[in-house]
Amino acid sequence: MRYDLVIFDNDGVLVDSEPLSNRLLAGYLTELGHPTTYEDSLRDYMGAAMHRVHDLVWERTGERLPEDFDDVFHARVFAAFRAELEPVRGAVGVLERLAAEGVPYCVASSGSHERIRVGHHKTGLDAWFPEDVVFSAEDVGRGKPAPDLFLHAAARRGVRPERCAVVEDSRLGVQAAVAAGMDVYGFTAMTPEERLAGARGFFSRMDELPGMLGL
To answer: Dihedral through CA 75, CA 127, CA 184, CA 201, nearest 10?
Structure first.
């Protein structure tokens, strides 16, 4: 089956940001008195919008994170991105294949527009993603696992949900894509298959993806 739109998650799928951002998140939460390991952060927050961090800390402890939490965290993340971030191996090759085949694509990320742009500028992916194909959880009321972001991206690109393929590497992202009525393909480079239940297929290397998308 060839799709009318391929929707990419960003962190961990296009840019290799999950190790950086989750180490920083775990360290900052621990610093604030909420002991969190790197593995805890991957389990609880990978693929989620920032409101989930606030919600889970409040739910578990009855304490609110500082008002400047997001600003401080993003400043640390952006500094790390500018110094260290790389594209996911093989991601550009997939984009080249989609462009050659005339298959539209976009990105739909739980991260902010600023986070997406900082990462894309550092890795050179901004050449592949102009503003009109970049969608963020900031654009909708609810982030993943709600389907809102994926439905928003499809509507803006003029494609029915059932004609979309989503490329995801997080449990929350897979849940969001399934809830949106879209086929989703799970990238297992960092996440075991069992945590991506509901995906139509799984792949561990980007060069496997075009064949799964019918290209």
So the answer is: -110
The answer to whether the Cα torsion of 213, 145, 173, 191 is positive or negative is: negative
pTM for the predicted model, two decimal places: 0.88
Q: DSSP for 131-200, please give it.
A: GGGEEEGGGSSS-TTSSHHHHHHHHHHT--GGGEEEEE-SHHHHHHHHHTT-EEEEE-SSS-GGGGTT-S
How far apart, in whole angstroms, are the C-alpha atoms of residue 59 and residue 136?
A: 25
* pLDDT tens series, the chain, 215 aa: 789 999 999 999 999 998 999 999 999 999 999 999 999 999 999 877 788 999 999 999 999 999 999 999 999 999 999 999 999 999 999 999 999 999 999 999 999 999 999 999 999 999 999 999 999 999 998 889 999 999 999 999 999 999 999 999 999 999 999 999 999 999 999 999 999 999 999 999 999 999 999 99
Give CA–CA dist 149/139, Å, rounded.
7
Measure the CA–CA gap between 157 and 160, rounded to whole angstroms: 9
Would you tell me how many other CB atoms lie within 10 Å of the CB of residue 19?
14
Number of residues in the chain? 215
Instruction: List phi, psi (to 5°) of 132.
Output: -75, 0
Distance (Å, whole) CA 55 – CA 120: 28
Structure tokens at 11: 């962190």
